[in-house]
Design brief:
Blueprint (H helix, E strand, L loop, with lengths): L4 H8 L4 H41 L11 H4 L3 E3 L21 E7 L2 E2 L4 E6 L4 E5 L9 E3 L5 E5 L2 E9 L5 E11 L3 E12 L15 E12 L5 E3 L3 H5 L4 H10 L9 H11 L2
Antiparallel strand pairs: 1-6, 2-3, 2-4, 2-7, 4-5, 5-6, 7-8, 8-9, 9-10, 10-11, 11-12
Length: 272
């Protein structure tokens, strides 16, 4: 059997057995030291790489400077890749199929680059294009609460909110009334309804379709937006006692609230 360099050295050692044992023990300790050092170095390298990636993901852009589309991609994520065959579906997942010029704000800073965005109400995504003639998008704005996108006359911001059942959810909300005491939001979605096959020769197939669905949210100081119905009874439950009394006086004027404009008018009067 071939002997190792360590074994040959061991046989040539003329010192006492105790000294030889000490030498072998020192070698083992030295070997363990280098193995430990290598493992620690590998760990440090891995931590460094992870830290570097973390820093890259948290890049805080100074959006007051002119930025290019490639730079904006730092704030983007891949658009929802679930492809939906819309050729057999009536309607559109978009409220506006065209990309519109937009303003982006992040942590109080405003982008000066020209960005083209559109809101996908089915996927709840804001898609990004390099030019307004683009038909599809591979990139979407990051769903972060410190990013606001304004286009088509609406300011979209990703928020946490509470549904009527009390469940906390997240999604894009549109601020429609920045009041002194209350903030009003809408959530605009496109819901895909199931189609139906004809049951007889006299009947017609009903294709699946996208339909618009709007829900309303009220935010008070120190709380997250709360979903509510467009009824004075539902609204009253989220008001302060003073504003509840004022709402009682306005009931006849706002007996039926059917639009966002009527809701905004009500809160403007409540906060006068």
């Amino acid at each position: 059997m071939k002997t190792s360099f360590l074994d040959q050295s061991w046989r040539k050692d003329k010192i006492s057995g105790l000294s030889a044992l000490a030498k072998r023990t020192n070698y083992a300790q030295l070997t363990l030291f280098f193995v430990t050092l290598i493992m620690q170095s590998s760990t440090r390298l891995l931590l460094f790489l992870l830290f570097s990636v973390s820093l890259a993901g948290q890049t805080n852009l100074n959006l007051n400077n002119s930025i290019s589309f490639e730079t904006v991609k730092i704030m983007t994520q891949k658009a929802n890749q679930s492809k939906l065959d819309i050729s057999t579906i009536k309607g559109s997942p978009y409220f506006n199929d065209q990309f519109s010029e937009a303003k982006i704000e992040r942590e109080g800073e405003e982008a000066t680059a020209r960005l083209w965005l559109r809101y996908n109400g089915y996927n709840d995504e804001i898609e990004i294009a390099e030019n307004p003639s683009q038909k599809t998008a591979d990139e979407a704005l990051l769903k972060e609460k410190n990013i606001r996108a304004t286009f088509d006359g609406k300011a979209y911001q990703y928020n946490q909110f509470r549904s009527k059942t009390g469940k906390k959810e997240e999604g894009y909300l549109v601020l429609v009334h920045p009041g002194k005491k209350y903030l009003l939001y809408t959530r605009e979605q496109k819901v895909l309804t199931e189609g139906r096959k004809a049951t007889s020769s006299l009947d017609k197939d009903i294709p699946p379709r996208f339909i618009e669905a709007t829900t309303y949210y009220l935010k008070k100081e120190g709380d997250i937006p709360q979903e509510f119905d467009l009824k004075t009874k539902s609204i009253r439950a989220y008001l302060s006692p003073n504003h509840q009394a004022k709402l009682d006086q306005l009931k006849k004027q706002f007996r039926r609230i059917r639009t966002a404009d009527a809701l905004i008018e009500l809160f403007q009067k409540l906060e006068e």
